[in-house]
Amino acid sequence: MKLVKLLANLGYGSRKEVQRMIRSGAVTDDTGRVLGEGELPPHGRIRVRGEELDAPSPLTIILNKPDGYTCSSEDPGDTVYDLLPPRFACRNPGLNPIGRLDKDTTGLLLLTDDGKLLHRIIHPKSHCLKVYHAILDRPLEGHEGELFASGALVLNAETKPLLPAGFEPRSEKQALITLHEGRYHQVRRMFAAAGNHVTALKRISIGGLHLPDDLEEGEWRELTPDELAAVFA
Questions:
Q1: Active site members
Q2: Banded pLDDT at 1 (limits 50, 70, 90)
Q3: How deeply is 216 buried, as exposed, middle or buried, from its count of CB atoms within 10 A (0-12, 13-18, 19+)?
């Protein structure tokens, strides 16, 4: 892979745009030497306008999703891609969410350009449980844990029962829900079936990976190897 193709795949522009950028002297190595189109130094030594190059593929990032953002670039309004550098939308291969969050659900979201990793995490055999913190409109009644763990709960407009889900009350109007699957608006529909309403919902973990305390809403960073391993722990 030559420099032009690398930069184009990372979203820095079309091949023609990248060629013009290189010819203008905007691409150098870490010593400041201007690079030519046919060169390809080690990734970590390349600079674009003095800044280090974005991480190469495969790339997996962790994002603390705020309220009001959807997880598809095709949806109207604000999307999680608006929280990333604009050039990320042009990466090839592109970044895709590993299990979407609803527009009004916040918290831990992983995005990756590694298709095999994506399918490994979402496949039931991986047992990557997802934990959500739910805040409710009305006090818990005490029957929710038994209902959610029964394996017999059928959501409205569906015929297949839900897999048993974990339930841990945290206060009168708060609870943690652990899911083995990911159906449409599942946690909200589960509480609706129990006669309650979710007013706020946040995903706090996937597998053994917990949302970092130091990652503020709207912030993102590259997932570390240890964090990726924790997903499957």
A1: 102
A2: low
A3: exposed
